[in-house]
Structures are given as structure tokens and as C-alpha cells.
Amino acid sequence: MTLNSTLPIAVLSESRPLRLHIGWDRKHAEPFKLAAWLGRSVPVSVSVSAVAKPTLAKRLPGERRSTWLSAAGDELASEVSQLVDGLLAPHQRHTTFTHLVEAQRATAGLVDTVTGLGADMIILGPGTGSTKLGETSPKDLPARLAASVAVETILSETLTPLAFVPRGVELSTAGITRLNCVFASSGRPHFSPMVPRAAALAGRIGVPLRLIAINPRAALKPNLQAPAHERAADDWYECSLASLDLARDLAVSAAGGTPGGEGFEVEVGLASGKGWRKAVDSIPWCGGDLVFTAAGREPTRRRGVFDPRVRELVRHSRAPVIVCPLV
């Protein structure tokens, strides 16, 4: 598998703004805070969309239908403008900032909008993972567009990376201060697709890169006296250390060819614990951390491609996580 060539760790190394698209969630401002935070370190162009079911508008005569959709679009624009006031500067907003889309399925409406805009990243709020996907109605316009049931559908329909924001996250006023590539695996981590691009980005914006292998069931220190059949975790420990050393060399080499790559810093680390929460909490986090991880498609599952290990990382991370689909 290889990483999608348009993922943000490649796009951010270019001169054009990073095109961010937010699935509207009126209950949470975190997606807009993340967009503004990213804008402290790199140029951004932000857009927002919500979805209206066409069946609602079809019940109305032609002129009333147009009036209804226009009113819904105006309400969306008004609510979003109030929310982003003081967060996003005018030059950080896309020329068409808000979009009200008619679609039978909210996920299809979001994906079509992202494709039409050529967005580099979709940002979803902290409601993802605990709520159902909303759609607009005359009593609730426009509805929020962030939900756990939608995540796997979105990942199955687009290769655009998804960004997830923890609830109540505190972000550094200095913007991105460290990039983190986190690899959740019980076997030998595979670093090659992501590391060079993340290293090039970190070198360009002048921040260190941290490579982390995480396993919720492995002991952090190997027990060399344990029987062979009990040493699976120890094998992970040894393999991960060796892979991290190789990845560090690869990162230093990749960053050396970018402007600002001189003196590039690479940190490596292992994280483990009894369960995902303890494993993720064992990692020291700061307000300037941004996490990249990759999610592959699972051909054995008819629906959904969200790697369960990545899902747990997103669920427990204290820093924003960008999930990059693997082709």
C-alpha cells in the first residue's frame, strides 16, 4: 500500500494554501479552532458545508422551494460567520465559504462538495464517534455533519484525509510545534510511505518530528527470560526499535533536501500500556502536537475501512489526529 499522493503532508510542502473543508457541527467550535491553529503555521483556505435532504424541499412548489433553500443557506452562512468571528481572518476563508448541499445521504453530499472544491483535508468535530449523522429539516437548519456512522462511509468514498479534533483540546498559540507520526501495530511497523513526507513538512516549517510505535498489549521493556511462546510482545519491542532507527535515518535524509531542513530533529519512542487509553496516555503530549497516522482499507469487511487500531488512537488522543488513507 502507498499513501494518497494528495494527502496534506505532501500538500503542505507546496506554496499554495492548504484547502480545509469542515463538516458543519453547530455544537462544537473545535473544527474551526483547528483550522485557525493550522493557519498559524501554514497558509489555509477554509470552507464549510451542511446537507439538506432533497425530499424536504421537493414537497414545496418551485418558488417556495428556492426560497426555502435560500433561507437555509443564509442561516448557515450567518451561524458560521458568528462562530468563526475572531478565529479565521477573511483571507483564510474560501471565496465560497459556506455550502448548503442537497443530497439523499449526508456523506455523499460532503464527499461531492470536497471533490468539487479540491479540498486537501476534511475536518470533523469531537461529536464523531458518539452521535448520529444529522441532516437539515425546517426545524433545524442546517444540521451538523460529523458522526461516527459516517466516518467509515466517508473513508470508503474518498481518499481525502480526515482530521479529528479532541473535545476541549487546548492548542498552542505558537501553532504546530511538533509533528508526530504514530504507528499502531502489533507487528513490525511499516514507516516508509509516510515518514519522508512528514519529515519534509517538518523541515520546511521548522519543527521536530517524532516517530512513535504504539501497542496496547506489549510490555515496554522486554523480558528476555520469558519462554518463547510468551515473547510476542518482546518481539514487537525489538522489531519496533530496529524499525524506528531505520525510520529516523530516512526522515533525516528526507528533511535534508528541504528549505529549513538543516539541523532537523527527529525523536523516536515506544508507547505501551494495558489498553489503548493507558498506551496513548503514556505519550507526553503538548499543545503544539499534530498527529499523522495511516488507515488501510480492509477487504474482508463489506462496509467500512476504518482500521480499529486507528479508531482507538483517534478516540484517546489528546492531540488532533489526521488520518491519511492508504491506496
Verbal overview:
- The structure is a single chain.
- The chain is an alpha/beta fold and 327 residues long.
- The chain has helices at residues 8-11, 30-38, 54-58, 62-84, 106-117, 148-157, 195-205, 232-256, 276-281, 308-316, and strands at 18-23, 44-52, 93-102, 121-124, 162-164, 178-184, 209-215, 266-272, 289-295, 321-325.
- Strands 3-2-1-4-5-10-9-6-7-8 form a ten-stranded mixed beta sheet, with helices on both faces.
Helix content bin: 25-40%
Backbone CA Rg: 21 Å
Q: Any idea of the CATH topology of the largest domain?
A: Rossmann fold
Runs in which pLDDT lies below 50 for 5 or more consecutive residues are: 129-147
Class computed from helices, strands and strand pairing: alpha/beta
Number of domains: 2
- Number of DSSP helical runs: 10
Write the element-wise H/E pattern from the N-terminal end onward.
HEHEHHEHEHEEHEHEHEHE
Count of beta strands: 10
Task: Characterize this entry briefly.
The protein has 327 residues and is of the alpha/beta class. Helices cover 35% and strands 20% of the residues. Helix 5 crosses helix 6 and helix 7 (195-205) packs across helix 8 (232-256).
